[in-house]
Fold this protein.
Amino acid sequence: MGDWKRTHDCGSLRADEDGKESVLMGWVNSRRDLGNLIFIDLRDRDGITQIVFDPQVDGESHERAHALRNEWVIAVKGTVSPRLKGQENFSMPTGSIELKVTGLKILNRTETPPFQVDGAVDASETLRLKYRYLELRRPQVFSVFLKRHRISVCIREFLNGKGFMEVETPFLTKSTPEGARDYLVPSRVNRGLFYALPQSPQLFKQLLMIGGFERYYQIVRCFRDEDLRADRQPEFTQVDLEMAFVNEDGVMAVFEEMMGKLFREIMDRAIPFPIKRMEFHEAMDRFGTDRPDMRFGMELIDLTDIAVKSDFRVFKDVIEDGGVVKAITVKNGGPAFSRKKLDELSALAVESGARGLAWIKVNEDGWQSSLKKFFKDEDKNGLNEKSGAGPGDLILIVAHKRRVANESLGVLRLKVARRMELIPVSAYEFVWITKFPLLEYDETEKRLQAVHHPFTAPVEEDIHLLDDQPEKVRARAYDLVLNGTEIGGGSIRIHVPAVQEKMLSILGISPEQAKVKFGFLLEALKYGAPPHGGMALGFDRLVAIMAGVNSIREVIAFPKTTSATCLLTGAPSGVDEAQLKELGLRTDS
RNA sequence: GGGGACGUAGUUCAGUUCUGGUUAGAACGCCGGCCUGUCACGCCGGAGGUCGCGAGUUCGAGUCUCGUCGUCCCCGCCA
């Protein structure tokens, strides 16, 4: 670079800077070598400026510019000039000017890149991840990370303004038995013992409340050793917060206001306030899921009272067993679903627990359906009416226990909506889901498990059910759902030691085990724990939705593959025998 | 742990099934030459292949079979 000093960014020059001396630095985005005239699109993170090498302006630079290639790093000195009339490029912000080069410094050359940074054909994700730094040069990719940054700044500003303070909590911490599989870190100083990387700072933030900090937050990495998905990475970022002396409304109000600010400032959109709330049971009944996508209708309809009047054995048996007959109505779905596509839906229903899928195509002249002969005409009309179905519509019906019928129709509802493109892509629909069950029975482990986590407080009026009907107890937990994605969740915590001990015993954790695993929390609760609660937001998921990308890999600078490897660094990798020995570890492979 | 899709020049793909058979093609990129207003510059020429890897069937395999590795999607799992 010598004594050259960059004076402008590549996206900033405009016609009113005519005649200015300027020094630009960046990467060669593309070149058009016409022989005597050489045009280079110079790119930095701010934008692209066309620079011109003209032998009549500077012969030496022009001569050397023939050698320039894509992705070389250069610095140019020159004069900002308006482009010739008719030669402006109105599709680029700097398209009315160009830089007439009077001096060129080549700062670095490059090997031929494995894929084109500015190319018509895109490379596979495998290659893009291996050379992630090249992909990060792409303006669209950079803009995602700029947006991520702005979102985190916005969140910090908001929480700081509300009296929250950021506190760091340990990464090398204690393994906890509940929840996801832990990433373990061996201790050299304490041979044979392990730290665990935190699945979330849950217990520490509760300790901070007991420590009297009252309002804590942290934008923090969390680690879970579970199988990956498009929206799951082994390490991911949460906006974690906790408040003392609040109830559900207190926590939810903070989050709603924060979401309002985020969408206003980053997306330039107003979101309706307050955000809708729906109890867990209502969500399951109406949408068949605890994270309903509210951008479209097609709600679940209960047809049990009509189905019971039919002669269809399957329906009657299910209803006698206490089950339900439920349906979704697909507007104009008749022509859209061929026999083959209906078979696919049926397979999907079976996969999600149903025993089968019944369907009715409502036509001008009546039903087209295998159920036709089982229903009286008046009941057919009644069913049509209750389903809101008219000619051309399709009714999909599942009969089963309430939970299974709901869940499989929930899956079908999404599938159908996607296939029929019923989901408005630029809509953002928030909903709170509240009062989740506190506990559920785990068939494989043959014991009760906490739905949220073992520190979630039960709804006061349900506490008396804890002993006899624990699965009926509702939790003071809430999830924030955006466009069918759970972007955050939290709860009011247990702050009374006796209740916490009771909870652990219901989970099948003996007092001795509890002392070993959670003793520090149980003890802390004894020393004046304030009522408290909080929430954690899946930051990567939120950014992905706000940036309009499909996978959280797109919003993480150096993400891992679905087999939890890093294609860039090659992690995880073997280590020296000496390192293992020092840690007292042996591997069996 | 289970199911599915994909793997062929540097890159993105075609060729692969029904039907194994001469020298594996295209586009973009790369290299060389020409070109004074380009912006997907244009024109001429050129190089570039362990058909993911391994075994099998066959006179002969990119193509068929089995195994294996990798990437992606889904189920389980993710308090």
